[in-house]
Amino acid sequence: MASSLLESLLSKCTALSHLNQIQSLLIATGQFKFLNICPPRSKLLELYSLTFNHLNFAIHTFSQIPNPSTNDWNAILRGLIIGPSPSDAFLWYRSMLRGSYRIDALTCSFVLKACARVLALSDSLQLHSHIVRKGFSADALLGTTLLDLYAKAGDIGSAQKVFDEMAKRDIASWNALISGLAQGEKPDEALGLFKRIEIDGFKPNEITVLGGLSACSQLGAFKEGDKIYDYIRSERLDGNVQVCNAVIDMYAKCGFVDKAYSVFQTMSCDKSLVTWNTMIMAFAMHGDGDKALELFHQMGPSVRMEPDEVSYLAAICACNHAGLVDEGYKLFTSMQSLGLTPNVKHYGSVVDLLGRAGRLQQAYYVIDSMPMLPDMVLWQTLLGACKTYKNVDMAEMVTRKLVEMGSTSDGNFVLLSNIYAAHERWADVGRIRDVMKNKDVRKTPGFSYIEEKGVIHKFYNADKAHKHCKQIYGKLEEIRFKMKEFGYAAETSFVLHDIGDEEKENALYQHSEKLAVAFGLICAEDEARPIQVIKNLRICGDCHVVIKLISKMYNREIIVRDRVRFHRFKDGTCSCRDYW
C-alpha cells in the first residue's frame, strides 16, 4: 500500500472501526511492518490516542515499532496529556532520554502541558533545565507553555522570570502571565501588566480581558473595570459568554450590582448556566435576597435553563445574607427530592444560615448528621456563630473538634479568645494567647484598601506609613468631633483586650477601614461616585456604626466589601439592614 494511499485513507477515518479495518488489512497482507518506515504511522498513533481516545491501543501499536521517530513519541505524549494519567508523560520522556531518542521543542511542550495538569513543579524544573541545555529557550511556544505551567503551579516568580527572558513574546505569553498573576494573589501586578500590553504593541483578546477583569474583581478596581468593559464592547468581544460572565462578576465584586444586572439583561449572546448562577450569587453577596430568589425561580423550562447544585448554593447564600432562614432551609431540604445532592458547601451555607440566626443547636445537628465528614470550615463557621451569640460551652467544644482535626488556623484561637474576652475571662484569654505563642500561630493582620486614580492604597490598623498620614488622621478627628453631635459613643465592647476605655476608643478609631474611608473623603473629586473600600476580614461592629454615620454626615455613598459580603452605606443606613 503506497504511503500516499494510506495517508488518504487515514484522513477519511471518521470512526474507530474504520481505523481498525485499516490496521487489520495491513496486518493481514503483511504490510504492517511497512509502518516502520512510513510517515503515516504517526498519524495512525494520533488517531488512536487523540481522535478516538484509545490510548492503550496507540501504545500497543507503538510497541511494535522497532525504531520510533520523534513524531511517534510525540503522538503518544499528546494522548497522555488528555488521558487520566498525564504524569505518565514524564516517565515516557525519561524513556526517550535513556534511549537517546531525538527530543524536539514539541516534545518538551507536550511534557510541560502534562506537568501543568498535575502541577508537577519539581518535574517542570528538571524539564526547564533540559530546555535550556538543548537550546530551545528561544522557542516562543515553548516559553509560553513553560510560563503558563509556572503560573498555574503558583510559582509566579519563575513565571515572571521566563516572561522577562523571552526574546520574542506573543499574545499567549502575555495572557499566561496576566492570568497567573491574577490567580496568584497578585491582582495589582496583573492589572499593571494588562495596562502595558497595548503599549507593547499587542491587542488584548478574550483571554486577556478575562485576566484583566479577574484582577479588577479582586481589587474592586471598578474604574479600570469600566475601561476594560468599554474596550470589550468596542472590539465586539461581548459576543463571548465567558467574557460577559466575567464582566457581571467584576461589577458585582466591585459593588455595582445594578450594572452587573444591566449586563445580564442586555447580553447579545445566549446566557449559560454560569451566567444565571453568577447573577444570583451577585445579588446574594449584596444582601438582596428577594431579587436573588426571584431570578432563581425564573429558571426552568421557560428560559431553557434548569438550576443545578451551584444555583441552589447561590440561592441559599442569598437567604443567608438576607436573614431568610426558613426559606433557605427549605431550599436545602428540597434538593434531594429534585435529584440534586448537597455537597459540603451547601451544608456550610446552611450552618452559617442557622448560626447567624442564633439557632446554634440546629446548626450543630446539621453538621452531626452530614453523610460525609465535615471539614474544618464547617466547624469554624459554627465557632463564628458562637462568638456572635457568646456561647462559651459550644465554642470550647467546637475548638476541641478543630484541634483534633489538626487545625492551626489563627482564626479558631482568635474567635475563642474573643468569646472569653466578651465575658471578661481574661485569664482564659491569656491562656489562649500562650497556646498560640507555643504553636507559633500568628493572628492575620486586618487591612483595607481603596483605589484612587488607578492606584491601590493599602492601610493596616493604626497605619502611619501613608504619605498623606497627617491629613487622614486630621479627617478622622473631624469625623470623631462631628459624630458626637449625632450622639455617637464608641462601641468599646468590640475591643477585646484588658485595657481602659480610652485606650479601647483609640484602638477602634485607628481601624484600617476607617483610615481608608477618611482617605476616600479627602481624595474623592466626584461626590456622586461611591467611596469603595475592600477589607480582608469582616468589618467590625463599631466601624459599621461609624461608616453609617459618615454616609449621613457627609452625604456620601460608601461601599465596603469585607470577607463575607458587601455593605452599601447610604443616608445613615446599610444594605445589610444590620444583619451580618
From TrEMBL:
PPR repeats lie at residues 170-204, 240-270, 272-302, 308-342. Residues 487-580 form the DYW domain. One of its GO terms (biological process) is RNA modification. Keywords: Repeat. It comes from the Eukaryota. GO terms for molecular function: RNA binding; zinc ion binding. Pfam families: DYW_deaminase (PF14432), E_motif (PF20431), PPR (PF01535). Belongs to the PPR family. PCMP-H subfamily. This is DYW domain-containing protein. It comes from Linum trigynum.
